[in-house]
Amino acid sequence: MSRATVLVLAALVAGAAARQTQTSAEFDFLIKGGHVIDPRNRIDAVRDVAVKDGKIAAVAQNLSPARALKAVDASGLYVTPGLVDIHVHVYPGEKRNDYAGGDWSVYPDGFTLRSCVTTVADAGSSGWRTFEDFKRRVIDQSKTRVTAFLNIVGAGMGSGPIEQNLADMEVKPTADMAMKHKGVVVGIKSAHFNGPEWSPYERAVEVGKIANIPVMVDFGGNVKAGRTILDLFTKYFRAGDIYTHMYGGVRGEQDPESKGPSQAMIEGRKRGVIFDVGHGGSSFRWSTAVPLMKAGFVPDSISTDLHTASMNAGMKDMLNVMGKFLAMGMSLEDVIVRSTWNPAKEIKLEELGHLTVGAAGDIAVLRLEKGNFGFVDPVGGRMNSTRRLSCEMTLRDGRVVYDLNGLTAERWDTLGPGARGGDPRWDYTRGRREK
Amino acid sequence: MSTRSRRIRLGLLLLLGVASWQLDAGSWELAAGSSQPTAQPQFDLLIRNGHVIDARNSVDAVRDVAVAGGKIARVADKIDPALARRVVDATGLYVVPGLIDIHAHVFHGTERDAYLSNGESAVAPDPHSFRSGQTTLVDAGGAGWRNFPQFKDQVIDRARTRVLSFINIVGSGMKGGPVEQNLADMDARLTAMRIRQHPGVIVGIKVAHYTGAEWDPVTRAVAAGTDTNVPVMIDFGTHTPPQSLEDLLMKYLRPGDILTHTYAHVAGRIPIVDEQGRVRPFVLAARKRGVIFDVGHGGGSFLFRQAVPAMKQGFAPDVISTDLHTGSMNSGMKDILNTMSKFLNMGMRLQDVIKANTARAAEVIKRTDLGHIGEGAEADIAVLDVQRGTFGFIDVGGGKLAGDQKLECELTVKAGQIVWDLNGRAAPVWTDVPPPAGRK
Lengths: 435, 440
Hints:
The complex is a heterodimer.
Chain A: H1 3-20, E1 29-38, E2 43-52, E3 55-60, E4 71-73, E5 78-81, E6 83-88, E7 92-95, E8 117-127, H2 131-137, E9 145-151, H3 171-180, E10 185-190, H4 199-211, E11 215-217, H5 222-225, H6 229-236, E12 242-243, H7 263-270, E13 274-275, H8 286-294, H9 318-327, H10 332-337, H11 341-346, E14 363-376, E15 382-396, E16 399-403, E17 410-411
Parallel strand pairs in A: 1-4, 1-5, 6-8, 8-9, 9-10, 10-11, 11-12, 12-13
Antiparallel strand pairs in A: 1-2, 2-3, 5-14, 14-15, 15-16
Chain B: H1 3-16, H2 20-24, H3 27-33, E1 45-54, E2 59-68, E3 71-76, E4 87-89, E5 94-97, E6 99-104, H4 126-129, E7 134-144, H5 148-156, E8 162-168, H6 188-197, E9 202-208, H7 216-228, E10 232-235, H8 245-252, E11 258-259, H9 281-288, E12 292-293, H10 304-312, H11 336-345, H12 350-364, E13 381-394, E14 399-414, E15 417-421
Helix pairs in contact in B: 6-7
């Protein structure tokens, strides 16, 4: 028998097997030929990635499409862990001028899945008084995996005096709520505090110790109040606590002379403080980011600070923020690790952010576009770039939740009038979250 | 000012594109944009060298577009950039009126099981509109006469997007389930009263999801529409047994009334393309008598199996709307540009695709002040790129159409303010930006 005949026969057998196993296959979904970047597992090469029952089932070369219910071709694309954005505000509602159930927050699914983000951490929109409403209305209703930093303020992130109310920053109820929802409450947030007191940070850290979770700080009006980031990093923070808005440039991040990182920043990093981007509406400036990056002061995690005042401005979405780091010369691999494995570790969800067999089947399929692009910062300056990222496909728990160009779709004229998308074992692009 | 409120203010400043500090430090935009200094720029914004498509004013050529005081100030072959505070180079791009989506669901709220009427199946307008070049979204029947005031307070008055409404003939709005089947809550007189309270904001009446055999929802909507001189939009289907689409189009609807979900093939509605692949003669006749055909893509209402043969026979839609809601936004629909690109790749001319969601959409909702960029019009502008490459488009059945063109939104201007700038075309290079005054 010639080699060709053997191959033809093998293909026929494989084809028959594929048809027969439509009721059950070894894999539910298979992504073939993509360039896998999985920093935790030190993979940076073309690999096939298979999922089964919501988990990563195999990462290997040349997995046969016949072994899967559905296989797609990702040649020329990057296959990475689903992106993890640990600074968003996704607790919207009818209240005015409020992140906690108000119109400064956005619903996650309209931003995340189309940007290849599968996990977000809400950064303190809710506090212990409001968290369960947030959970019922958003966390339990979203296709995105939504976790939360609980605000040290019981009411959550409101406007005006709400966030300045020391009496509503209570350790015990905050810790109780964090413990009750362990794995969903992944940290404690303090933000926008303008007073001279250190008690918000002390209390947040106390809760963090009880619940064994990190604290994330937006350092508010520290300069005017006489609080320094050096004190924050050396006297209050533990290793693993998170300083967000690292390139905001208004709280002592920069050395006044060199414009590079201040001594405080360098000292903080030495002690294990985590530095997070938290771009937002005004917390990322080229004039801060560029000199810090040049001095090697790169972020531990890249995050958006998504809310209604950042979404249509310089921030836009996770991929746009990642694109800014590409524009500043960071390698794609370094951008990916800061948007997957690093943030997952920071919030202690180490089952996420990588493509290890058995891990959650959260996958991003990204395209690195070449062209002439521009990225703006909140003070209105543009940086030009020749690269940007776009999201081709997103899987959450092994199922496709976004498919930009129809990688999963069949030619329309091959389908009958009754066709309604793919097998529900891998197609979850339609409808809202299943109850 | 607190840091947080300063943050918000700065964010809003950028969002608005209001150049308050830009005036303080007026050097960079001269360096960035213009050849000679000028004492008093007369335009706030100049979009240069773009290909303008403005069907209403019969413009289909490269033009400069100048904006002042939130209005279109001048459209001409060449406008001196020195006359403008901010200059955007749109060479190679299309400059069109801000897009109008006549079928969206933006009455979002937190009421349990309230579907598209103060419920969580609807989306907020601003996260979806500007990034897709849309400046006007028309909510398709979320609110009825009873809860329209809540919709107005909660969404319309807070959104930066212009939000208009087809009011549901059901007084309680589109809450799903039995609420939408309650004939006793479909009152033409009260619906008309509510419409008269909000002229130009309530631009039509919606009938949707009724499963009974009666024609009353349609006749009452038409009665209220006749009374108030607004069109009726019909989501027809799910009737058991099916009602006659021919009767709807030829007997019940008036010229100017709208059939949405034109290219759907769903239970309980006769598809417009028959089993032989031909557009049904009564559908063609209905168009001739002035019935409007709208796409209303949604999560279940657009099949290439219907659209491709219809387009081949010249049956293009009047308006290309999205039926945006949480169930459609991440599926085959995605956004209005993706939906418009489907028609571009089915052979519809770019000019016609743009016209459908600008001049034509404005006509259909009788807001002819919108959908064009003639001098004096509200400065709602979209700057679009037609990307070339290999793209795919999915319908609600999971069917794919391969394409080589796709629309992308570069810049959106609402009432003269830049509300979306994908690549920072309106921004100077960052090293030219002086540090903001008064910040430490």
